[in-house]
Protein 1
Amino acid sequence: MTTDPGRGSAAAAQVAAAVADAHRREWAFVLAATVRVTRDLDLAEECVQDAYARALTAWATEGVPARPGGWLTTTARRRAIDLLRRDANLRRRLPLLVEDPTEPGPEDEPGLEEAAGPGEVPATPATPSGWPAARWPTPRSGPPGAVGLGAAGPGMVGPAAPGGPADRPGRPRPVRGLDDLPVVAGAADDRLRLIFTCCHPALALEARVALTLRLLCGLTTAEVARAFLVTEPTMAARITRAKKKIAAARIPYRVPPAAELPERIDAVLTVVHLLYTTGHTAPTGADLVRRDLVERALDLARMLRLLLPDDPDVAGLLALVLLTDARAAGRVGPDGRLLLLAEQDRAQWDRAAIDEGVALVREALRRRGPGAGPGRLPGRFPLMAAIAAVHSGSPSWEDTDWREIVGLYDLLTRRWPSPVVALNRAVAVGFGEGPAAGLAALDALAAEPQLAGYGYLPAARADFLRALGRVADARLAYEEALALTENAVERDFLAARLRQLGPS
Amino acid sequence: MAEYLILIYENESDYETGGEAVYGRVMAAHNAFGEKHAAALRGGNALQGVSTATSVRSDGAGGFTTTDGPFAETKEALGGYYLVEAADLDEAIAIAKDVPAFFGGVEVRPIMTFD
């Protein structure tokens, strides 16, 4: 934040707050719209960062605009067009993102080569697209203006590109005029394009998560690195590698066709869910919850809900995040100790979030959508949210409807067979039918290779063994669980359980 | 448009144990694939088994060592490829899903272009 020591400091702080707010709310909107001009992620990022920097001074003199996102988009796009017009080499070297081939390009329209004239208005305002579908060189250099960007890590710039697009050697591609690019029409689509590109299943999950935080949430590379506890050069390399694959393998910048949507939406939701679970229980570190990641996941889930209002899985994911996060205030005791669901003060739960989540679960379960899989079962996120909703609706731990929960886990196992789901189901069986039944259900999973090294299995076994009075076995299981988690709050919890068992 | 190489990796022993019936089924599948994607296909071949492979490496001192066997021993070995033309990765992946690879899978690699 800039703090002006003089009389303008309050106003400056106000502008800085407005810019920070616009950064969080509008970054994805502004970047997605700018990528449509640059068709290069790095150049678009540079222009958007520049627009936010300009906003700090411009808004101080002109006042905060009524539509900050529109102002920032216009400024960033204007900057992009300036850069592209000024530097023909830059234009030639950009490995253009592939857009929808059905959208008309300037090559289809005579006389629209260099300068952007009014005749360049696209066929329909909603599809402001259309660069020539060129074959571009793969070994790329970073665009000259893009150095120093968060994504361009040290030593990460590839070898210089030998030349321009193969089918149009030496010829710069036309630069579209700003007025031809509607800012509002199709804007929602632009954000969706960006989401589907960042979360393409051809990218590794960790790269998808990093790109999403960088490009959709506007986090700096340093912030993304901190979020995942890796060094900044490591994260910069990860992001650069992902961007390079997008360009070289031609991962398209577009919303997938309907037939591919369920699979592709799932790839997006997996990213947001991973972001949320990473924040919800940080794998390492002093704090149980990483609020920043949880907030970002919630923002993204809300954005997806806005952009894909009819998708039941999107509704399910938003519901899951809302319902789980609604319990956040009750999860940790005043002494920082982890509180189990059974111990939590349910009065501390966020009722507004629960109401919103429950309504979304109902909607998601009602509307299965064409992508609903085998046997037309609801998707995994609506089912997981439904389980969370049962807990949220229960006045106390003792009143929990475990039959309902086990039934939902049975559906989830059919829809999304996974050892972790089976583990959670076994725990629910134990709560519903007693520790012996729970232990039997858990022991059936002991040979599951994917659960080897998963700390929640021995922790759950330990609790049931303790309830059955098998103290020595319980102690061994707690010690095993303790060896498998590095989260300080979880470790304290397990150590306390061990102490309660008394000396061996 | 761009070109992609679709590399077919399969477990060879499944062919050896499968016999004539498997061979016939695989050939029919490749013929069907070739007809369906004739417009996109730029080339393709099946390879002889890894037991016929010879690896040649420079010894760094001007000489070469020639050894029997593939470059890397893996359970699933490169057994054939198709060269296809596609607008983007999504289109290439859609084609790749149709490539018969009953005993393994395929890898999609964009062809690098130099100007």
Note: The longest strand of chain A covers residues 284-285.
Protein 2
Amino acid sequence: MKQAEVHNYLRRFFQAGGAEVLQSTPPKLDVQLNKTLDLELMNRPFYWHYLEKTGGDPNPLKMHLSTNMQSTAKAEEKVHFGSPRLHQIFASAADKGAVTRLYEQHDEQSQTPLYPWLGLNIRISYTCHRRRDDLRSFGVQLISGETIDAFMKRLSPLPLVPAIPDYTFTMAHLIQPTSAVQRIKKYLLDDIQGQKHTWANEATKRMEEDLSLLDRFYDERDEGSDAYMLEKEAIHQQYQPAIELTFINGGLFYLRKDTGAHL
Amino acid sequence: MHIDISFSTDWEETFKAALDNEGPWASWEMFSLAYEAEEHKAVPSFDGLVAPTHLPELSLYDHQWETARRVVEDMNGKAILADEVGLGKTIEAGLVLKEYMIRGLVKKALILSPASLVNQWTQELNEKFYIPAVPQKKTYVWDQCDVVVASMDTAKRAPHRDIVMEQPYDMIIIDEAHKLKNANTKNYAFIKSLKKRFCLLCTATPVQNRIEELFHLVSILKPGHLGDERSFKAQYKHEQASEDIQALVQNVMVRNRRDNTNVTWTKRHVENYSVEQTEEERAMYDAVCDLKQTVHDLHGFSLTTLQREACSSKEALGVTISNMLKKGMLSEEQVTPLVTIMNQVKTNAKAEQVLKQLQASEEKTVIFTEYRATQLYLQWFLAQHKIRSVPFRGGFNRGKKDYMRMLFRDHVPVMIATEAGGEGLNLQFCHHMINYDLPWNPMRVEQRIGRIHRLGQEQDVHITNYAIDNTVEQRILHLLYEKINMFEGLIGRLDDILERYSGQALEKYVEDALDSGTEGEARLKLHHLTELMNQEDDPYETGRSS
């Protein structure tokens, strides 16, 4: 993540979070936080608790951020990829952006139907003694059941708004959103089981090698001992191949028929 | 082959709740930001290191990067980090830990270090790696904090021990791991009983005296890698097998040497000062030597110890003499004449020389001595001449060590340290060192020098060795240390030497050599040793990182 990207990300985050951006001229970014963001990011629960008890006027803090790594200004907080502040903001975004319901904006002057889709973003982590992540994004049309890949990419050029636009009605779904989630789960499981997992074979091979060394170290009579079992468990935990599927975020998207066909 | 597959269901709950309550729904922008955050955080490949991209402010040396990569890719996260002193083992260990934390493979980690280094580790992990490490000060820290730094002595004691055993650590890092060379110690049993999914053992001296030490270290990481103890002992004595062992060790150990890194080191300037004793001191030294005639069962070891102490201070000698008297190793009659002679000694010639050196210099100086009594004496003596100093030794607790180091850095011109205090102490801010007396194991001298001559030292370092004329001290300096050029920097292949002497302690060898019947014999034996140490080639390619 380049420093310019960091700057843009921060600016967008604070705007989306309802803070007032006072200055945004890279590498500098000054923002006036609102109460929600102050509570979440500034770690001063006692202040807010005190305010609640005394009923004073809330006075959220300002943040002075810089993406200039050479900056020595004391009043500025340097932010870069890997800095705790950015990861705190990532976590905040993940929390705030977990679920959504959006409508496609359009200029039609006559009643226009919008079709329901369930969109779901997933992280697949392949772990053993090492790890790799893969992000997937699916969309399921909740009337036809049509399922498509790379849904996020298809959504990105569309004008999406939180309230239903004028001259618009939504089509009722035939498939429950939660059932669509189950469909995606099943699809992913089938997909994973159909793959060749060379990484897992490799990890299993290393695990077996270390286990056989362990057997050499302990005499046969010691092989039931606590020490032996402990080492064995540690080796399993070190190498055991696993795949974790985590839903990042998702929601309902009401899209025009012609857009859906393009998807 | 079996693969565990799991779904995390947290999101589904959130989604259901939002459906039921008609919100709250995220804006498209926030939804996109959440997805983009994941894109940035995702680790795209099993291979390589991602940690450096998270640490733009950390400047890494090539050997540190390469070491972390080897540990992660080739050694599966279990390794002995055995760089020579001062090459940044802490940085390498921090980098490996960070890599695993970013990849989500390590959440809970335990760092065990000497008490004096707990704060330093905590600080480095937080400031250089943004790893929220916490020093173990209160009992609740064990289960409530993810990354804990503690001293081995604390962790192995009740009530901590049981709590520590229950923690599901993903990674354990042990600093100064040569403390685990002996498999019959409580420390060893404690570490052995911890579950080690990933584990790093840091030590500059994986072998101090004998090759079995390496066997025990490797057996902590990867039991069976070097076979079982019996077969190992039987094997390593054969030349061929010894090479096989070296090859195996390379699979679990990274050892960078000063001369094969691209680090530009500042120079070492060495001066040896010969000190002439006063007549009274000479009489004291001679009286100690004469004990050999009157005390028949005085072993070479005890005599050498007494001789070395006599070269250090009469205070150091006095402590041992009185202990030997208590233990019945010396009788009242044997001791009395010696004590009379000792009482004549009014000045310490060596201390006077050191005083002159200190008075002529403005530089911060660390003085090393082998003896606690000498340490106390020197502190008193320097105080008499208005030179302030701080002591430093192994027995100090963590806070006191940190405080002493801080006093030395910020306020006091001299630190007087004993051997026990030498390990892990970082004194880059100082570049003058005095060896008031010398240990007889070159590895320990190297550890002393490593306190000031390490990464981060910006100036040339100045080392002054003091030795008393015509004593064991001068012999060891001339016959051993001057020949192996250790003070100048290239200390040869000390660990190879030690491996070749497998089974025989080096210090013992030196003592035996000095105890030889004739001067010629002693010279020959020590010459043999220095020849070995000066060999340029490295036939075993011991743990060289390539």
Note: The mean pLDDT of chain A is 92.
